[in-house]
Amino acid sequence: MKQQPSDLSRRSLLKALTVGSACGAVIAATGVSAAQASQDNKVTKQDTKGYRETAHVQSYYDSLRG
């Protein structure tokens, strides 16, 4: 009876892809949180009152004109 060679390299590849994608998702999630936290720290109490025309609001207005 012949024994089949083990697919160790295939298993290693699948493990690496799974672990890599999970790590990528964690890094992406923490990167967004860190960026948002740093932006929130810049906002002072005086800046929170009233209307603010930020860059993304201005780009939205520009898209309506075109």
Mean pLDDT: 77
SS-derived structural category: mainly alpha
Give the end-to-end Cα distance, rounded to a whole number of Å: 74 Å
Total number of strands: 0
Number of helices: 2
Task: Please provide a written account of the structure.
This protein has 66 residues and is an all-alpha fold. The protein is built from two helices and no strands. The protein is elongated. The mean pLDDT is 77.
Question: Would you spell out the secondary-structure blueprint of this structure?
Answer:
Layout: H1 8-42, H2 55-65
Characteristics of this structure?
66 residues, mainly alpha, 0% strand
Summarize the structure.
The chain has 66 residues and is mainly α. 70% of the residues lie in helices and 0% in strands.
